[in-house]
Amino acid sequence: MSPMRSVMTRGSRSEGRLLSLLMVPVILVTLAPVARLLVEGISGETGFSASHLVPVLTAEATRIALAHSLVTAGLGTVISCLLGGAFAFLVALTDLRAKAALVFCLMIPMMIPPQITALAWTQVTGPSSVLLKTLGIAPPLGAPQPLYSPLGIALLLGIQHTSIVFLTLRAGLRAIPPEAVEAARAAGARGFRLWRQVVLPLSLPSLAAGTAMAFVTALGNFGIPAMLGIPARYSTLPTLIYQRLSGMGPSVLPEISVLALLIGAVALLGVIAHRLFLRRRAYGLIGLANRPLEISLGRARPLVETLLWGVILLILVLPLLALLATSLVPAYGVPLTLQTLTLEGWREALFHQPVTARAFANSFRLAGGAALVLMAVCLPLGWLMLRRPTRLTRCFDLLVDLPYALPGVVLAIACILLFLNLPFTERTLYGTAWIIFIAYLARFFPIMLRPVQAALAQLDPAMEEAAQSSGAALSRRLRTILLPLIAPAAAAGGILVFLTAFNELTVSALLWSSGTETLGVVIFNLDDSGETVMASAVSVSVVLVVVVLMGLIQLGARHLPKGVVPWQS
Amino acid sequence: MAELSLNRLGKTYPGSARAALADVTATIADGEFIALLGPSGCGKTTLLRLLAGFEGPTEGEIHVGGTLIASRRNLVPPEERNMGIVFQSYALWPHMSVARNIAYPLEVRGIAKPERSTRVAAALEMTGLSDFADRAPAALSGGQRQRVALARALVADPSAVLLDEPLANLDLALRGTMQEVFTGFHARTGATMVYVTHDQTEAMAMADRVAVMSEGRIRQFAAPEVLYNEPADDFVAGFVGDGAVLPALAEGPRGPGRAQVRVLGHSLEARARCAAPDRICARPEDITLSDTGPIRAEVRACTYQGGRFRLTLAAQGGARLIAFSRARARLGETLGLSLGRPWAYAGGAAHG
């Protein structure tokens, strides 16, 4: 029998208190830059002032850009929900064949940087499309590019963020005990009724989470509206900020701070709406979800499979083919034939430019480091927020989406403001890889935290209480009980962080310096300087690296705990 | 193992006007099997969670073997209380095998591997799970899962084993078997067990003593037969066992343990411990049906219960009585009956 010593009591309590110290660096990294930005937005030359606030917020351009942002992000989220939702329900619940391959392909669009998505799609539809010219069906020169429109932006935003809805929803569907669905089938419910009355209500929390995340992501997307909206003179808030900054320089920092705060406020409203919705709709799920559901589609199965693969063809294969075609021509706009086919663009981009190899290494290190650090931090932090909620943690919970919801450009500026001069020292982080790393940590925090939080919240509290009664102190419970149980969610979050960071452009575009270029910067610089062919070549090689990486994980999936690989069925 | 003592324990949740637990005082002897019985919301689970340490009391104290483990100021966390707990949902860790689940409390205590294996093997043996040591919990049936949870709770030789409605998720036949598993385990290990349930048959069948709870208070804490034969108040009389509570008029004591009372207009002798009882608890066994019985009552319902019929009777003034009969009775029929030595008590006295 183990004696109960008061020394141990104190030891255990201080363990919990020690854990709350974690909030200090976490808040410093995630919220301090945004707070610094807030101060910049509302202060004039001499202390607090609305001198920037009022004129910017009442300007016609701001109103229009806000409306445009809401319309494109809203429509895009609808598209993400329809596509991602249909795929998630069908893959998680039915007896589709080749699910793994289907999911694998669905994940790829998310890993392609937005501006590359936009580039690839304009290669599919526009008058100078290499693919269409090669096929001889290109519209005449001077014909309008149909994607240079609000609908075009919304469509690509929707496709870009389909996997967010898909992953979140499917994770939620997996947590539904099969008995819940089988009980309804036994009760005579089938088909649409089964889905609408049982599956949908049970999966609403995760669908709502996915929707909120897709909306917030779409709202902050810069690449797509920049590529498609700027030619059509259709500004959203992120492109408005970018244009102001690149047009006028740092003198407009206070003004764009206000715009950034505006978009942050809109994102916050989305998050709060999601919270309120969840509060009324959270069900406790009873039972172990240990068997996957496989409802038979019957004779409709080949038709459904054809439809799903058709969607994959349209949103993945077609634009990638167009991108590949563009990377293989000697000059942009030349049709691809056996005579014109050349690897010159590839050779130049990959071997003659040392910056490309450096960018690959930088992006690997930054993205991998961010994923690992966030994984290590988010489990104890998620536990703290769930089991020891304080006003501080609740506040943090509400605000942690901000760095992610803000356009990357703005977070970058916030980081510059904060880290330009490190307090108490003469040193600066600006110009080093560390400022990019910190910005990544801040930006991708919610991508890691939310799945971990969801997994912790769904866990039967008795799991932890049983360990507690067994005598396990906090650190041991975290390590031996909670970590293995939420490992799938943590790994899914980690992979999402890595892939998002690996292709990230908007933060690093303002923070890079010679030697710390990221892949996004290299692609952007090539594209910006008119080297569409070389940009396409690097893009295709990035896509290849990502696909190979995903393939490696897929091969090792058998040895990983169940559910670690997000696209594995 | 050690004695558990609860001293004026109370718990009020923040923002709640009503106390979830109030003025609970009790002593649980070393090796005793105790059941906490009551309807849902009566505070029995709250009391269990206070014992386990998942929550702290707002009033009073808990001592284990003379050591203070919980009061408003001092709270030994659950991981240092050395209590085993069995949950309704089993709470087995799905990423660990059966043997690993059971070994976990020993691992945490830093017990060396050879001893650990011996003790886990013994626990598996005792719960009849030896063949399942390497299975995953998900591959077990409900009864087997609950036995793993029991083995895990007991393996580290805890001060007490707390069981939170452990059989609520199991089917009836399995419940009977598991009751035997629990009582057998209790007999062999001599562990102090605190068993929360809302099922009186379960509580009465297994426990040495049962604490009947309602609205956050312990109404009566006694052996099952005492609860049945001598309920302390109306709640216990109505909640435990079958029968009826009837108003009575005290006609004076008749010596130790006896009282003369007037019930339904008839004077009769009752068992009693107080001087002025004002009601009786008439169990079906106390009622003898006969054509010459002084009390007349009409049959309102008749259900067969295997070997006998259970009759619901309405006496004069509408008072309801429950009686057993060897023969079937017709609805509406009037029968004669007599009351033999029912339990008489003062209804308002137990909790004024």
UniProtKB/TrEMBL annotation, chain A:
Gene Ontology CC: plasma membrane
Transmembrane segments: 65-93, 100-121, 147-169, 198-219, 256-278, 307-332, 366-386, 398-422, 428-449, 481-502, 533-553
Membrane topology: Multi-pass membrane protein
BP GO annotations: transmembrane transport
CDD domains assigned to the protein according to its UniProt record, in alphabetical order: TM_PBP2 (cd06261)
Keywords from the UniProt entry: Cell inner membrane, Cell membrane, Membrane, Transmembrane, Transmembrane helix, Transport
One Pfam short name: BPD_transp_1
Subcellular compartments: Cell inner membrane; Cell membrane
Residue ranges annotated for the ABC transmembrane type-1 domain, each copy included: 66-274, 360-553
Similarity remark: Belongs to the binding-protein-dependent transport system permease family.
Protein's UniProt name: ABC transporter permease subunit
Species assigned in the record: Pseudooceanicola albus
Phylogenetic lineage: Bacteria, Pseudomonadati, Pseudomonadota, Alphaproteobacteria, Rhodobacterales
UniProtKB/TrEMBL annotation, chain B:
Keyword vocabulary terms for this entry: ATP-binding, Nucleotide-binding, Transport
Residues annotated as domain ABC transporter: 4-240
InterPro entries referenced in this protein's UniProt entry, alphabetically: AAA+_ATPase (IPR003593), ABC_SmlMolc_Importer (IPR050093), ABC_transporter-like_ATP-bd (IPR003439), ABC_transporter-like_CS (IPR017871), Mo/tungstate-bd_C_term_dom (IPR008995), P-loop_NTPase (IPR027417), Transp-assoc_OB_typ2 (IPR013611)
GO molecular function: ABC-type transporter activity; ATP binding; ATP hydrolysis activity
Domain of life: Bacteria
Keyword presence, Transferase: no
Pfam families xref list: ABC_tran, TOBE_2
SMART domains per record: AAA
GO CC annotation terms, alphabetical: ATP-binding cassette (ABC) transporter complex
UniProt family annotation: Belongs to the ABC transporter superfamily.
Protein name per the record: ATP-binding cassette domain-containing protein
Species, as recorded: Pseudooceanicola albus
Record lineage: Bacteria, Pseudomonadati, Pseudomonadota, Alphaproteobacteria, Rhodobacterales
